[in-house]
# Entry
Amino acid sequence: MRTKPAEYSLYIHIPWCIKKCPYCDFNSHEKNAEYDENAYVDALIKNLSVDAEKVKNRPLKSIFIGGGTPSLFSAKSVERILDAAHQLLTLGDEVEITLEANPGTTEAKKFSDYYKIGVNRLSIGIQSFNDSHLKKLGRVHDAKQAHLAIETAQNAGFERINLDLMFGLPEQSIDQAIHDIELALSYQTGHLSHYQLTLEKNTLFHRYPPALPHDELIWEMQNACQLLIQQQLQQYEVSAYAADQHQSQHNLNYWQFGDYIGIGAGAHGKLTNAKGTITRYWKKKHPRDYIQLAGTLSVIGGQHTVNPSEIPFEFMMNALRLKSGFTMEQYQRRTHQDSSTIQKILDSLLAKNLLHMESTAYRCTEQGWNFLNDTIEHFLPSE
# Structure
């Protein structure tokens, strides 16, 4: 019996923003004189034609256009990229196509055109509905534009919309965090991502830290918001909540340790060959270098083969983020490793009440969920 080719995802990186947010550590650049939308789309298509050879005959599960701010690009440019994907790749049934968008008025005007060309999911970076907090975060939109963007997306026909919200913001109170959640839930978009603001290296906030709420207040804030969200949506991942059938298929592929190819400046990919060898790679980070080298193998900025001893840890870093956990069958299929590689650790975590079994799935207990990093560290390879 022939094994069905494994599905994979495609990530497309658009590296430009109107303005770099002070908390952002992604590979993004402020739109400047070097910005050339047409040249970059040409480069993406050239690069996709090279990467397509790596996934021949495998069905594509999802496409995610992230950034940066992909909604800076015209619908015509996005359509060119999607047309190339249709021509070069084998698309599976009902491929989820997500585009990240800013709530700015200029970007929101394009939502209807994105929907018409086949984008079927929007992820809108709201972050907060509070003008004061948006200003402190360095966002280029205000609360009025945030509301208008959601309404515009719904009126355009989008049934799958994710709203990104942050908490633990400078000088934010619990009541303010809860109010953000109440406003987001009132739109019934079906998906909400709820992230704590963290001070990442190589960001302006890391160099010049703002005054954030203390840890106890952040913990109370998170719990209060979580209880409110769960009245309407189900938590299916550490920071993600969804109505039935509204989970992000692209992100689920990451968390289930699936394969993906990445095109665009600094985009990452992960591929597993028939022998179970996992290779991670990334493209040149600067848009200028990427555009020049996109159609060649020199566009690869680096790559490495994952050591088999590190695969259990890498798998658990993703799978245990999911409320549904994983089955042993999923572990073996995604890692090409036998259950014996992790069974002793699983037994130990079951005994410590950090994991429990429900039917055939291993899932975090409430204690394991609250101390997720500690739980996952048990799978680190021994020295």
